[in-house]
Amino acid sequence: MILDLLPFQRSPGRVAGRWDRLRYVHFGLSLGLVLLLWFGFRYRDQVHFGSTAGLKWMLAGNALYYIAAAGLAYALRDNRAFCKYLCPIPVFQKLTAPLSLLKIGAEREKCDDDDSAAIW
């Protein structure tokens, strides 16, 4: 919702090429950091109920997400740039999509770029 407050009212669409890999790099780096802190630095032994360390990490992580999202939005002039290129959730969705019981089909030639851009 915060990103919708940025001044870019109309999405320019998706940028092809290297931007599609950015979400996987982001996911790998995030997972690597968590694993390094948890197992490498034994962070799990330092966190206990009532500790503020977990809250500080969460706030710092959220701040980094918002900074990255706003920076990417301004670089690409697109409010939804974070969702399109950086959000790690589709990494899991793409892994489980082939196992889906229901599949949605579409005919690409019936799609109209002008109508789809109005949705964003």
What would you say this structure looks like, in words?
The protein is an all-alpha fold and about 120 residues long. It has a domain of about 70 residues. The protein is built from five helices and no strands. The radius of gyration is 18 Å and the shape is extended. The C terminus is likely disordered.
List its traits:
5 helices; 120 residues; 0% strand; extended; mainly alpha
List the SSEs and their pairings.
Blueprint: H1 22-40, H2 53-76, H3 81-86, H4 89-96, H5 113-119
Amount of beta strand: under 5%
Number of strands: 0
Share of residues in helices: 40-55%
Number of helices: 5
Low-confidence stretches: 115-120
Q: Gap between N and C termini, in Å?
A: 13 Å
Backbone structural class:
mainly alpha
| Average pLDDT number | 80
| Backbone CA Rg | 18 Å
Q: In sequence order, what are the helices and strands, one letter per element?
A: HHHHH
- How many strands, which pairing sense, and closed or not: the largest β-sheet? none
The gross shape turns out to be extended
Structure described in brief:
The chain has helices spanning 22-40, 53-76, 81-86, 89-96, 113-119. Helices cover 53% and strands 0% of the residues.
